[in-house]
Request: fold
Amino acid sequence: MIVKMMIAYLVLEFVEHPNHIGGIRASIMFENGYGASIIKSNFTYGGKMGLYELAVVDSDGDVVYDTPLARGIIGYLREEDVTEGMRRIQLFESLPF
Reply:
């Protein structure tokens, strides 16, 4: 799904994590070619405390490790932190296609 407006945590649709680790996962792609993968489980950074982790991903769903937001996965995020992370990802310059 390509999103043209700024989106917030509230619009994410979480599903059961597909790797059978328990927990939930949501992903979303933005018009600039970047996306976000948001996960919460007992095995994620902050998951046991009810917090989320977020990774910046490319159009193939691969984690992008060198971005203005972070150099990897960001953990221990509250819902409002997830929203802020997604807002910042949407402001990145477009990925070259």
